[in-house]
Amino acid sequence: MQSEPAETYLRNLAESELRRYRGDAAEFLPEAMTRVRAVATAFAKTGALDPAAAEGVVEELTTALEVRSPGYRVAPTVAARLRRARRFQPGAVPLAGAHPAPTPAGAFPVSVTPVGALLELREGETDIVVYLTAALSTPHLAALSAGVLSLPKGSLPSRARQRPGLPPAAPVAARMYPGLPGVPRDLRAVDATGQSYDLVFNGGGDGTWSAGHFALRPSSPGAPGRRQVRPADAGWLIVGNDETSVQVDLTARSPVAEVTTTENGLTAGEQFLRIRAEAMFASGYHDVGTDLKGLAAAVPALRAVGMLPERSELPRTIAALCHRYAVGRDDVPDPPAALPDRWASLLTGDQHASWQPDGADTPPAAAHLPMAFPETDGVTTVLSGLVTHGRRSTITGAFFGPVEEGYPEGPCIWLRDNDGQWHAVKQRGWSSGGVNVFRADLTPPVHSSASRADILVIGRTADSRGSVPLTWWTS
Q1: Which pTM value belongs to this model?
Q2: I need a surface site. Which of 163, 166, 347, 352 has the fewest CB within 10 A?
């Protein structure tokens, strides 16, 4: 497809925004840029316009608006360099211990092993329980999915049983890494071959409850050219610190979940609108109220350049969202359609009905969730564990493959419990470089009485569905 119509459309839209706004750029620039940046992203991601050309139009409009602002002080060339560093999607934080180069999904095996172990730490300044839910392993990644509860001294009961700590390791200053408050930084592991590892946490939390993954970083990498033994090949792993430890069986396997994948048959323009609309619900970085105006602006733009069929249902769905959120529908004159069940369930349900408040007397509950979904769009989605504490539920997992291609953060994930309630999996804290490890909060949270989880993974070109029983355990 020729890019001239798309570039002309984008430039005309930018000129109309430039004529419409006056005054201080600090006040009107964000609103002025919403529609232009949204259309530029739509054109770049669907192939209607070269990404560099789309970004160039956005950059020119931003500079023009800033120059017209009375408070403008930054030289245009400096501002342009700063904007060129931006991208049309959120940035990412490198994962400690992950392979730095992007690796296509399917180029290596991915294994998810249920763990179900508690590491109870009582000798520090706080009482800590580490819920180890699963082990993730590839030739370039070894990690333990975990939830960490940290409470004031004396809040948690004494350890049910004592297991010796690990042998002395390297000096603390040499092996400790910066971490989150409440998450132990002195954890390490030893496998059956004698290889030792430092555990480096990647995730998030509030100092009391944290969830994410402990990446296993070899304490002694070994001689150059020597093959590194993977923990999954060693059979078992002892995890702990000087105080105590637990042994993890890496040979355990859960029943294989039945997964089906269905192609959606949508055009590139429809795929863009759909994945962006899903991301407003199932993403920790997007919000319906703030993103809807830009998504609505992309509808006539994609139609104008032939990227959106006239009979497509996506504009009607977006029109329904605009109606619900009182967002102007000048860009989407289509009559509203019924919202998908998962959206309606999330929008109409009481997100905390019959839910107990946070408290030290309500211990977290963890469930195995070892599921690997087939590769779609070059991305393999893997889930590893589910932990619920108070009014927060967290899923841990990983994407293997180039999630940057066509996604805001990655495939969108939904969970439906055995009562029929849908839960949006809001991804946060994921990492880039071919292996994208994430933790995700569920909205609404999943109660520990749930006995089954149906998982829906929405990709750009296909959807995958699977179901798995939930077996909960706690301290």
Answers
A1: 0.79
A2: 352
Look at residue 209 and tell me if it is in a domain: yes
Q: What separation in angstroms does the CA of 337 have from each of 228, 257, 280?
A: 55, 34, 18
Sheet with 209-218: list strands edge to edge.
111-121, 126-138, 141-152, 209-218, 196-205, 188-191, 236-240, 245-249
Q: Who's near 256: CB < 8 A, 6+ residues apart? A: none
Condensed to tens digits (0 to 9), the pLDDT of residues 313-346 reads 999 999 999 888 877 767 788 889 999 999 998 8
Which two structure tokens, joined as six digits, stand for 371? 């599921």
Q: Give yes or no: residues 145 and 213 share one domain.
A: yes
Shared domain for 136 and 72, answered yes or no, is no
Look at residues 44, 35, 54 and name the one whose alpha carbon lies nearest to residue 298.
Answer: 35
CB-based burial of residue 89 (10 Å sphere; 0-12 exposed, 13-18 middle, 19+ buried)? middle
In a domain, 440, yes or no: no
Per-residue pLDDT tens for 15-42? Answer: 888 877 665 555 566 677 888 999 999 9
Domain count, the chain: 2
CA–CA distance, 204 with 202 (Å, rounded to integer): 7
H helices present in 225-372, as ranges: 231-234, 268-281, 288-304, 314-324, 341-348
Q: Do 151 and 240 fall into the same domain? A: yes
**Residue 75 phi, psi dihedral angles, 5° rounding:** -60, 140
By the 8 A CB rule, do 172 and 109 touch?
no
Can you tell me the distance from the alpha carbon of 18 to that of 58, in angstroms, rounded to the nearest whole number?
12
Question: Same domain for 63 and 182?
Answer: no
Of 289, 288, 261, which is closest to residue 276 (Cα–Cα)?
288
- What is the DSSP secondary-structure string of 48-85? SS-HHHHHHHHHHHHHHHHHTSTT--S-HHHHHHHHHT
List the single range of 85-99, 221-235, 287-301, 447-461 with lowest mean pLDDT: 85-99
d(C-alpha 138, C-alpha 433), whole Å: 14
Phi, psi of 3 (to 5 degrees): -90, -5
Q: Which stretch of DSSP H or E encloses residue 286?
A: none
178 lies in some domain: yes
Burial of 211 (0-12, 13-18, 19+ CB in 10 A): buried
| Tokens representing residue 144 in the block | 């333990």
User: Would you give the distance in Å from CA 280 to the centre of its chain?
Assistant: 13
CA angle 290, 291, 294 (to 5 degrees): 120
Domain of 84, in residue numbers: 1-88
Encode 330-347: b = buried (16+ Cβ within 10 Å), e = exposed: ebbebebeebbebbebbe
